[in-house]
Every structure is written in structure tokens, then in C-alpha cells.
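Q: For a teaching handout, I want to show students what a protein-ligand complex looks like in C-alpha cell form. Below are the inputs, and the small molecule is flavin-adenine dinucleotide. Please produce the holo structure.
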Amino acid sequence: MPAVMWFRRDLRLSDNPALLEAAARDGEVLPLFVVDPALWGPSGPSRRHYLGESLKDLDRRIGLVVRTGDPVTEVVRAAREAGADQVHVAADYGPYGSARDEKVDAALADHDIELVRTGSPYAVAPGRVTKGDGTPYQVYTPFFRAWQEHGWRDPAGDLGEVGWLTADSDGVPAEDLPDGLDLPDAGEEAAQRRWRDYRRDKLEAYDRERDRPDLDATSHMSVHLKWGEIHPRTLLKDLEGMRGKGAQTYRQELAWREFYADVLFHRPDSARDYLKPEFARMDYDVPGDQLAAWREGRTGFPIVDAGMRQLRATGWMHNRVRMIVASFLVKDLHVEWQHGARHFLHWLVDGDLASNQHGWQWTAGCGTDAAPYFRVFNPVTQGKKFDPDGAYIRRWVPELRDAADPHEPVDPIVDHAEERVEALARYERIRR
Ligand SMILES: Cc1cc2nc3c(=O)[nH]c(=O)nc-3n(C[C@H](O)[C@H](O)[C@H](O)COP(=O)(O)OP(=O)(O)OC[C@H]3O[C@@H](n4cnc5c(N)ncnc54)[C@H](O)[C@@H]3O)c2cc1C
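A: Here is the structure, written as C-alpha cells, with flavin-adenine dinucleotide included.
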């Protein structure tokens, strides 16, 4: 009997264990993608457009069947039309995705169709790495050690001949890009090409240069990982046997992605609420004009404005700058992290619930960071340290292109020294 391959965050044909399973019996597979309004609606133009491009890539190669609507209805309908008795997926461990899959599982079972979960978007599935007593890790470093020790499978084998089935399709959804937004190429081949070039040209210097937003020294793989155009296991396999510090540091960064997925799996409430609940008692300001200035890159702090404008122009922001702008919103403007996280998820092309919400919570001091809240980033010294010549600032804040000192704030909306003291005073009040 034919099977359905329901693609979600695994938009690739190679190293795809769920797809291999789908093709394993008689090789006839209906390739399905469901545009779920619950996910499509809240996404911003960058992620929608990128997803559309990635789906077009799969469609060109295998003739994707796209349906729009509630997956509980659409997956059952597509499976029944194809006469399939199995629907194959990579397991989803996020709060929305896992609940959705349970409902789809039950709806399929009513028609004697099985939902088969194989693999996940991670090298090690969330929930697998635990402390000796079976409880989850709260802190990254011991998680990383245990994750390395646990290990992961080799990439899956090649996909043989597949008889791709076809059916009525609503077509790949179109989303126009707003003016001034320029996104990277989407699709499996683009992901492989970028990884190959990065490994060849830049990986060796990754540990030394990854904190420098002026150098473009990071891999930009986040968007490809987000949509599963390449699997982290493929990257880890290529890193195997590479002895340099660049490869080791890169492995550690991939482990942050796995750690945050694990934290979210154990604490699904942390997608919205404080991981450390006492932070809900802190005094915060009601967001107003200052939040708007932050969003639009008009705070007067050059590195903050550069980052916020890079986000709007490219759907991406350098990791160091993500930390600087997040710290600024929470500790200089005293705005709750959720407002910033929402703005990021709207514009980031790599927007990912686990990495984003926990990147925010870490920087805000209410997440998994073992260091205390009173580390407050100074946006000017951070800028001088990580963008020493101001090239990053000059690129994204054109009015400072010819400034003698591009790091010097211009009409700043707050006084950083005063707000630092204020942030610490607010923190003291919740510690008592
Ligand atoms: C406030 C904030 C919000 C963030 N939001 C997201 C998000 O929505 N989606 C997202 O993928 N990453 C997010 N990150 C993590 C990180 O900034 C990006 O993964 C990274 O900048 C992507 O660029 P790159 O692929 O060139 O990274 P590289 O430096 O080349 O890193 C390689 C890969 O490792 C992983 N990685 C690296 N750093 C982190 C990290 N701190 N946390 C989790 N994974 C990491 C990513 O998958 C990345 O692609 C956030 C960080 C912060 C501080």
C-alpha cells in the first residue's frame, strides 16, 4: 500500500529517516505539506516567504501536494484519497506540534491509518539526555557533556527509487516580500552549498571570529536547520575527525540548539512564562514609545540600532548583537522579554520557538544562564569590543557612515548608567 510523507520541518530528501521509512514498503509515496493557519498566521513576511521558496524547491523536484487547513482534517483526507495506511513524519517535540500530532494520530486511527514517527529535527531527540537520576539538565555545560557522551546516529542512507504519487494541490502559498527585505536562497541544495563553502573557507576561524558581527564569520545555517533543509547530524558527521578549535566550538553551538529544545520539551510553559518564576514579580515598564524606537532601530545606541536594522533588512541578526539588543530592551528599557521575543519571531527568518524564547530568557537573566542577573551589557563597550572599527555599525546605520567615532551614542533615548542602577534595584526587590 502507498504511504504519505507529511513534511513539516524536514524539507529535504537526503538524510531523511522518516522519508526512507515511507518509501520502504512499496516505494509509492504521496509527498504532503499542510499550510496550517495556526502557524502561518502568526509568522511574519520573512519566514512565510522563505518557507514558500523552500516548498517550491521540493515541489520542482518531487511534485509536492500542498493543502491548506487544519492538519487534523487535511492529513486524514489526503491519506484516505491516496488509499494509504501509514502517514510518516519526523517527530515534533514543540508544545504546539506535539499536541497537534496527538490529535492527528487519533483522527487517523479512526480510519485505521497509522501515524509513524521516525527521527526528529535534532541529533539527539529532546528528553533523551538526562541526569543520572532521570531529571533534565538545567544548565548547558553538563548537558553538553552528557549530549556528547550520548552520541547520535550516522546520517540516514540514500533514498532509492520513489514513485511519487500526486493529488489535487492548493499550490505553494505566495507571500510578497516587503521592500528592503533581502533573504538567503532557500532549499536543500542551497543549504548544502552554504555548508560546504563555510566548511572550506571559514570554519577554521570560527572560534576566534564568531563574536565579530563585522566579519560575517558565522555559518548562517540557522535558517536551513530551522526548516530541516539539512539535518544537524549531517553537520556533526562532517565535523567528526576535524581536530581544530573551530570545529569543536561549532559542535558546542549546535548543542545550544539541542539544549534549548530539551528545556522547552520539559517546560513547555517557558515558551511564554518565566523559566525562573520569581522574575514574574519584577517591576517592568509598560511598553510604549521606547519599545517602538527599539523595534525601528532608533534608540541612539549605534550597535543596538545596527542590529535592529539588520534584522529588518535581512531577517537575520548576528548572535552577539541579538544578545546586546535583548539585554538593552530588558535591562535598559525595563520591558518584559516576551515583547522582544515576539518582535524577533515576527522578523527572523530562522525564528525558532525554543532557541528564540530561551535566547531571550538567557539574556534577560530569567532563563538557563548560571550567571546572575547583574551582568548588564554596556552597549557602547560591547560595540567597541566586537565591532572595533565600527564597520558593522557603519553598514547598517548609514547616518554614522562618516562619524569619527561610530560607537558614540547620538541622542540616546536613555542614560545607560542610570538604567543599569535601576535594573539592579528592581532585581534586588525580587531577591528579598
Ligand atoms: C535573543 C536571542 C534570540 C535568538 N533567536 C533564535 C532563533 O529564533 N532561531 C535560532 O535558530 N537561533 C536563535 N538564537 C541563537 C543564535 O543567535 C542563532 O542561532 C545564530 O545567530 C544563527 O546564526 P548562524 O547560523 O550563523 O550561527 P553559527 O554561529 O554559525 O552557529 C551554528 C548553529 O548553531 C546553532 N546556534 C548557535 N548559537 C546558538 C544559540 N545561542 N542558541 C541556539 N542555537 C545556536 C544554530 O543552529 C546555528 O545555526 C537567538 C539568540 C538570542 C541571544
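A: Two things your students might notice: The two ends are 65 Å apart (CA to CA). The beta strands are 3-7, 28-35, 65-68, 86-89, 114-117, 163-164.
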